[in-house]
């Protein structure tokens, strides 16, 4: 509900259609004070929707500039006002002062300093940002999320493309793609730009790369080439820019953000008391935000988790690099800084002893870096306040740092913190595949293992199991598909171009068609019989895994091969199979999946059993309901089964097959007995019938019967031709 309200709020910001100009906006000027980012962004989207590409570019760029200016102003004004006379917050009286005059005089000093700093911030904001200051440029959380995902660049790349500014279009596309690496449409757009003659490799640049990441990556690259001297300036810049990025983030924590009221609604943390309770709630929220800045700074664009120990890791590389170039004084300074985070680190302590021994006589002036010492002391002070509030006021706090000393944490909270640290996903290796021993006992399927479950596949009711087929069995089924294709009896699409892409050929074989071909002598009976056995094997396993208390029936079985068309892959931009769901019509715009025709609404579970991996592309992938963001991907291999529920919770597609031939057995299961696959029963009966009639006919006519005529006779005996069904 809250997400819907945010969306409605953003829509209300859009001007009414038909307005000739964005209302209330002065002409855009680089030197003018920034305007409201939300209004600029809304007007930019309106211009984009109207096809006014040049105004859309100007408005979207101004929205980005305004937001950046707001962040710089907050950071600069915060630093300036903290240094103004009379704005420094007074230190609290010591614990021995008692409840007397010292505390009585401290309170007015604190409030006076807070008022003076507020006055300074208001005046500074008005000078930098125009009348109203930062409050006038307040940005709601829905819009902040859009900027965080770099959505303006998604619109900019299309607008630049329409304006024939391909270099800028490629840069905007790359900038968006860096933060959204699983966005399918942008992936295709990037491939399109790379094939354009007017786009250079240098065009693919990140316009939003934080300076600390650019310097960090350059420094690591030089270290990897054993060029410590060249790497040091970049490593120093990375550290300084990392600290500056944290300061900018901390300044944003003090802004008049709409998010604070929304968080109150979500978490129920709004103040219910008087003045001091309200001050405490607001201050705790600011401190929590400041502590999160460490993880935000250490998280690369497009990634979900931060680089562990980001600052200590930089200090480790710095002291080692300085030692390599012989600058032992700087090496000592940086290793001492590292020991502020981990005082008992054996490797750092050993390195410090080594550096000091090489330096010879003690140098009393050497100590930790002042910027790191200030950072650690300030962070520990904030953590103490947050843990105090957690213990005495019932607030929550997830410490982002593994280096926090145990002495800072109240004893009553240490066990809880230890549990939270153990739950952090980036501290652990991915779970290893586990043998499916339980299902072995149930099904007597030796060698079957559960490779990935729903959690590892980032979804619900999904599983990857290996070992359902031996290599020999895969070979038999591949030969069956090949023989059927050569016999010219391709069911479904008759070997023509795929209905999903013109760059692949599609061949499908049903169980009944395979049985008919086997009776006609066009394919081996071993392959047709194995096709039946394997489909039942998959059904039994799928039922045991997903639906042990409710019988599943096969509703359709299809042996499918996709082959890349040679000479047509270089310019390819599409998928082998677009994103879809198996029992409902997927609407990516709303995330809804309508369980109605033309979808096969009776399908309940789906399975894909792969036969080979000697091809390029062709991986199966799952997406979010918007059909844009990939949540999991599976590489085919012989005997690998991907099984999942058929509804809108599992949208999936297939990447383009760009070389070779990809074969798999597609199966769908249903709880409804009336929709069970009748062809499967007919095929089984056909394969079990004796060959007496054929032997009798052969005795009457010594001339061999052409396979095509025999096939027609078998089809006539079966009573009807095999059904043509689309593989979905």
TrEMBL record:
InterPro entries in the record: Leprecan_dom, Oxoglu/Fe-dep_dioxygenase_dom, P3H, Pro_4_hyd_alph, Pro_4_hyd_alph_FE2OG_OXY, TPR-like_helical_dom_sf
- Which keywords belong to this entry? Dioxygenase, Endoplasmic reticulum, Glycoprotein, Iron, Metal-binding, Oxidoreductase, Repeat, Signal, TPR repeat, Vitamin C
Give any GO molecular function from the UniProt entry.
iron ion binding
Secretion signal: which residues? Answer: 1-20
What are the recorded Gene Ontology BP terms?
collagen metabolic process
Q: Which reaction does it catalyse?
A: L-prolyl-[collagen] + 2-oxoglutarate + O2 = trans-3-hydroxy-L-prolyl-[collagen] + succinate + CO2
Organism superkingdom: Eukaryota
In this chain the Fe2OG dioxygenase domain maps to 557-671
- EC number(s) on record? 1.14.11.7
The UniProt regions of compositional bias labelled Acidic residues, in chain numbering, are 254-267
The prosthetic group or cofactor this protein requires is: Fe cation; L-ascorbate
**Where are the stretches annotated Disordered?**
247-272, 679-728
What the record says about family reads: Belongs to the leprecan family.
Q: What is this protein called?
A: procollagen-proline 3-dioxygenase
Q: Which organism is it from?
A: Vicugna pacos
């Amino acid at each position: 509900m809250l997400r819907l309200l945010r969306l409605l709020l953003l829509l209300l910001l859009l001007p009414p259609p038909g307005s000739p100009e964005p209302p209330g906006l002065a002409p855009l000027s680089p030197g003018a004070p920034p305007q409201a980012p939300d209004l600029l962004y809304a007007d930019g989207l309106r211009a984009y929707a109207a096809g006014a590409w040049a105004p859309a570019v100007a408005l979207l760029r101004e929205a980005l500039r305004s937001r950046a200016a707001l962040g710089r102003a907050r950071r600069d004004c915060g630093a300036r006002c903290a240094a103004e006379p009379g704005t420094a917050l007074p230190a609290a009286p010591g614990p021995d002062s008692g409840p007397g005059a010292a505390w009585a005089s401290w309170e007015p000093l604190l409030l006076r300093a807070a008022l003076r700093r507020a006055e300074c911030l208001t005046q500074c904001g008005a000078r930098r940002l125009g009348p109203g200051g930062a409050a006038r440029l307040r940005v709601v959380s829905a819009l902040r999320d859009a900027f965080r995902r770099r959505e303006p660049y998604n619109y900019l790349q299309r607008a630049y493309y329409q304006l024939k500014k391909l270099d800028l279009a490629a840069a905007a596309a790359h900038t968006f793609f860096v933060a959204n690496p699983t966005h399918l449409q942008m992936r295709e757009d990037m491939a399109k730009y790379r094939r354009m003659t007017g786009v250079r490799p240098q065009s693919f640049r990140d316009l939003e790369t934080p300076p600390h990441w650019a310097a960090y990556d350059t420094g690591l690259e030089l270290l990897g080439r054993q060029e410590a001297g060249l790497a040091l300036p970049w490593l120093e810049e990375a550290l300084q820019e990392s600290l500056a990025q944290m300061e900018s983030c901390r300044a944003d924590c003090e802004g008049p953000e709409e998010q604070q009221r929304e968080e109150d609604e979500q978490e129920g943390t709004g103040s219910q008391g008087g003045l001091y309770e309200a001050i405490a709630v607001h201050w705790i929220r600011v401190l929590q935000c400041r502590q999160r800045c460490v993880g935000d700074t250490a998280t690369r664009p497009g990634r979900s988790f931060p680089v562990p120990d980001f600052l200590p890791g930089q200090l480790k590389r710095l002291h080692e690099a300085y030692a390599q170039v012989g600058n032992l004084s700087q090496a000592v300074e940086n290793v001492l800084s590292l020991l502020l985070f981990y005082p008992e680190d054996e490797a750092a302590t050993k390195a410090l002893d080594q550096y000091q021994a090489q330096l010879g006589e003690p140098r009393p002036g050497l100590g930790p870096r002042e910027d790191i010492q200030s950072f650690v002391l300030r962070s520990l002070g904030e953590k103490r306040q947050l843990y105090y509030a957690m213990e005495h006021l019932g607030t929550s706090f997830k410490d982002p740092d593994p280096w926090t000393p145990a002495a800072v944490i109240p004893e009553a909270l240490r066990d809880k913190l230890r549990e939270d640290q153990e739950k952090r996903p980036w501290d652990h290796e991915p779970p290893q595949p586990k043998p499916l021993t339980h299902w072995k006992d149930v099904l007597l399927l030796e060698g079957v293992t559960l490779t990935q479950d729903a959690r590892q596949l980032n979804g619900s009711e999904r599983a990857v199991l290996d070992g359902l087929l031996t290599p020999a069995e895969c070979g038999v089924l591949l030969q069956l598909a090949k023989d059927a294709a050569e016999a010219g009896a391709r069911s479904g699409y008759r070997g023509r171009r795929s209905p999903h892409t013109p760059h692949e050929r599609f061949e499908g074989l049903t169980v009944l068609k395979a049985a008919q071909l086997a009776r006609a002598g066009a394919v081996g009976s071993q392959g047709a019989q194995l096709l039946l056995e394997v489909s039942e094997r998959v059904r039994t396993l799928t039922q045991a895994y997903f639906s042990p208390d409710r019988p599943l029936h096969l509703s359709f079985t299809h042996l499918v091969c996709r082959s890349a068309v040679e000479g047509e892959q270089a310019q390819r931009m599409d998928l082998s199979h677009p994103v879809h769901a198996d029992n409902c019509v997927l609407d990516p715009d709303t995330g809804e999946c309508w369980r109605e025709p033309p979808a096969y609404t009776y399908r309940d579970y789906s399975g894909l059993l792969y036969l080979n991996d000697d091809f390029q592309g062709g991986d199966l992938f799952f997406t979010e309901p918007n059909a844009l963001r990939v949540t999991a991907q599976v590489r085919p291999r012989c005997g690998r089964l991907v099984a999942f529920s058929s509804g809108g919770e599992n949208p999936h597609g297939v990447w383009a097959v760009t070389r070779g031939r990809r074969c798999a057995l597609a199966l769908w299961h249903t709880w409804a007995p009336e929709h069970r696959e009748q062809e499967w029963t007919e095929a089984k009966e056909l394969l079990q019938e004796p060959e007496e009639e054929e032997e009798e006919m052969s005795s009457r006519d010594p001339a061999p019967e052409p396979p095509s005529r025999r096939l027609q006779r078998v089809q006539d005996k079966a009573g009807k031709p095999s059904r043509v069904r689309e593989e979905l």
